[in-house]
């Protein structure tokens, strides 16, 4: 049996890189896509210099045609696509009364519109083939309104949680499972760039387990949710926040 295949968006660095490496280590064939095409191709080459099990793809998730081209590149290279991980993200931290409407729209365009387009383009493919897995990267900020992030980021992530439920309901009968992961603050470059060191130390003290999340664990959770046996996780939002948010 040939390996399952996955396209990961925003995969060139940070959590996206962890996702690409986790799927590849688990035996998947991986499409490493990113708006930074050079970085995506470099990471794919580091996973497989011969390009048999990993390819780089330039993808601006805001563009339907580019998403369709990424789908077609996966089909051309691997013959099939079994999973999509919507990870591409823009993170901004700004007080809500200081957010310019254009900046709000720019964040939502990548995070929410990009996830919608991905779910729609690949949802159609997966429905037609009678099988597929979509894993959306949500966030604790989309559940509690955010603490270290801006309202635009939090609102977009809350929207991703809702989209996950809508696509899960509509695609579930066709053999397609759609789920989301909602991490709290992670030990990642994005978090360290966003939050000053002193504030980050104070933030860690508010987390019951007193540490930041591990990107490797989040990535392995995505691999788990993309598995053949994950159908019953359809519509689920998997929390991983150290106990900051419990329901």
TrEMBL record:
<dbReference type="InterPro" id="IPR020904">
    <property type="entry name" value="Sc_DH/Rdtase_CS"/>
</dbReference>
<dbReference type="Pfam" id="PF00106">
    <property type="entry name" value="adh_short"/>
</dbReference>
<dbReference type="GO" id="GO:0004316">
    <property type="term" value="F:3-oxoacyl-[acyl-carrier-protein] reductase (NADPH) activity"/>
</dbReference>
<keyword id="KW-0560">Oxidoreductase</keyword>
<feature type="domain" description="Ketoreductase">
    <location>
        <begin position="4"/>
        <end position="189"/>
    </location>
</feature>
<dbReference type="InterPro" id="IPR057326">
    <property type="entry name" value="KR_dom"/>
</dbReference>
<protein>
    <submittedName>
        <fullName>3-oxoacyl-[acyl-carrier protein] reductase</fullName>
        <ecNumber>1.1.1.100</ecNumber>
    </submittedName>
</protein>
<dbReference type="InterPro" id="IPR036291">
    <property type="entry name" value="NAD(P)-bd_dom_sf"/>
</dbReference>
<comment type="similarity">
    <text>Belongs to the short-chain dehydrogenases/reductases (SDR) family.</text>
</comment>
<dbReference type="InterPro" id="IPR002347">
    <property type="entry name" value="SDR_fam"/>
</dbReference>
């Amino acid at each position: 049996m040939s390996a399952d295949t996955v396209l990961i968006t925003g995969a060139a660095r940070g959590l996206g890189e962890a996702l690409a490496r986790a799927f590849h280590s688990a035996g998947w064939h991986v499409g490493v896509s990113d708006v930074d095409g050079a970085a995506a191709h470099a990471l794919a080459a580091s996973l497989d210099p011969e390009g048999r099990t990993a390819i780089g793809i330039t993808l601006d998730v805001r563009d339907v045609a580019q998403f369709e081209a990424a789908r077609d590149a996966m089909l051309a290279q691997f013959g099939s696509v079994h999973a999509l991980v919507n990870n591409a993200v823009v993170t901004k931290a700004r007080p809500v009364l200081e957010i310019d409407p254009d900046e709000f729209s720019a964040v939502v365009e990548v995070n929410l519109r990009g996830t919608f387009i991905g779910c729609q383009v690949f949802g159609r493919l997966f429905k037609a083939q009678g099988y597929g897995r979509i894993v959306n990267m949500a966030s604790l900020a989309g559940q509690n309104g955010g603490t270290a992030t801006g309202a635009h980021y939090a609102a977009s992530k809350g929207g991703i949680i809702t989209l996950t439920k809508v696509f899960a309901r509509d695609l579930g009968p066709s053999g397609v499972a759609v789920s989301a992961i909602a991490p709290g603050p992670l030990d990642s470059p994005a978090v360290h760039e966003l939050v000053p060191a002193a504030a980050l130390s104070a933030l860690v003290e508010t987390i019951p387990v007193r540490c930041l999340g591990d990107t490797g664990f989040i990535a392995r959770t995505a691999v788990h949710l993309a598995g053949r046996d994950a159908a019953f996780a359809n519509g689920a939002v998997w929390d991983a926040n150290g106990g900051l948010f419990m329901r």
